[in-house]
Amino acid sequence: MDAWILYAVKVFFIVAVAAPPVLVFIYRWREVPLRGADVEEMMSCALRGPDKAACAEAQQALDNNPYISDPQQTFERYHSPWRYLIPLLVLTVLTLSSGYVVYSWVNYKLLPAPVAAAGQQKPPEPIPARLPGPIIMALVGGYIWGVFQICARSRSSELSPDDLYEIDLGLLAAVPVGIAFSLITADVYGLRSFMAFAASAFPLRDVQRLFRQYATRKALESSDSGDSASRPAELHLGATIEGLSDQTLARLSELRISTVLDMAYCDPIRVMVQTGFPLPVIIDWVDQSLWALYCGDLKSKIDKLGIRCSLDVCEFVDLHLRDGKGNKRTVVDGADKAALDALSQAMGSDPLLLQDLLFRIYCDPQVVVLRKLWYPHGVPRELKAAAAA
After folding, report:
1. Chain segment 55-106, per-residue pLDDT in tens
2. What is the spatial distance between Cα 142 and Cα 202, in angstroms, rounded to a whole number?
3. What is the phi/psi pair of residue 184, to 5°?
4. Domain identity same for 149 and 189
5. Span 322-381, pLDDT tens digits
6. Which residues span the domain enclosing 381?
7. Is the pLDDT of residue 20 over 50?
8. Bridge partners of residue 322, in order along the sequence
9. 266, 293, 320 - which closes a domain
């Protein structure tokens, strides 16, 4: 029976040591290509479609834009297998080393104590058996923390080579951190070992996110009540963009994206590869942020008119302010003038000034790239037919 227990312990440690690198391998060669398919589909539609002229315009707009990198090249470079190689090797070595030390310690505790022969001294204990409990528990806590981080980030599709380096650093720091926390407690009922384990396995990143969520919620509540000392033109994402949860705001703030200006001129591809957010969702946030920069606090009122983002503005310009050949109309009349007057009234602006503003948005380099890459076919036919009717 004892032999079976020892065998089961050995199998358990083998599985535990193999789990972290196997999980990373599965994520890189199974999940990452699925995310890359979204980028590939967008690139095929915008740059390799049947309309060669439109594809050339889209490529030119992308080349001339200083904020958005080439989507496919950026994604492939960021998730290159070579970028995973070094952190994955370090992760494997650290997991194997800590697993061997803990296994040796457990194995010695399970085996019967060696008996010294007559007239001989008792053989010395092996090094792992002489290690204090806090070190062993710190290694166990660091392992649990690392596996938890890999599983959590893989589930949210945000595990990257940079994250693996962070996990490696956490495994390296597990023992120093565990010992430091064990020294501030009395060694009563194994309390030092427990403190070493708790400090190494502590989900610090998740706690930081909770604090960010709390701080963001308080800042937005203070802004709504008029007690905030922040600048009026700050335009925080949580108060301007639709559909952003506290968790999403906290994750974006880790990337130093807190205002609509940060979001409007970020690189959506980089945000995609650094987070688990789908590319269409990020594009919608960028699209809304660009429109919010131009219309300011009026965005919530204009949303009710069906214009909630910069691409909606482009549709409005194409339908009401440009002629059939795509040129700017010199005279806007009829139903088109009524639509322009209604929008100017909602914004409290002069129709001529509003028309100039809409064309500025239409020609914004960031908006042009969004329209060419993620909206390559222009205004939908159904919308054109409805406007013509």
Report:
1. 888 888 888 888 888 888 888 888 899 999 999 999 999 999 999 999 988 8
2. 9
3. -95, 5
4. yes
5. 877 777 887 888 888 888 888 888 888 888 888 888 899 998 888 988 888 776 555 455
6. 309-389
7. yes
8. 328
9. 293
317 in the same domain as 225: no
168 Cβ partners below 8 Å, 6+ apart? 87, 90, 91, 94
Q: Which of 152, 169, 202 finishes a domain?
A: 202
pLDDT tens digit sequence for 214-250: 777 777 776 665 554 444 456 788 888 888 888 888 8
In 3-state terms, the chain is what percent helix, strand and coil (to 5)? 75, 0, 25
Q: What is the pLDDT of residues 259-310, one digit of tens each?
A: 899 999 998 888 988 888 888 889 899 999 999 888 877 777 787 778 888 9
Could you tell me the sign of the dihedral formed by the alpha carbons of 288, 293, 294, 299, in that order? positive
Rounded-to-integer distance, Cα 322 and Cα 330, Å:
9
Cα distance between residue 47 and residue 95, in whole Å: 44
Q: For residue 89, give both structure tokens.
A: 């090797």
27 lies in the same domain as 173: yes
Structure tokens, 159: 């595990």
In a domain, 253, yes or no: yes
CB 315 within 8 A of CB 383: yes
How many Å apart are CA 293 and CA 68, to the nearest integer?
Answer: 18
Q: pTM of this prediction?
A: 0.79
Token reading at 211? 């604090």
Q: Tell me how crowded residue 134 is: count the other CB atoms within 10 A of its CB.
A: 27
Residue 224 within any structural domain of the chain: yes
* Residue that has been written with the tokens 């194409």 in this structure: 318
Q: Which residue has the higher pLDDT, 154 or 121?
A: 154
Range list of H helices, 257-330: 260-264, 268-274, 279-295, 299-303, 310-316
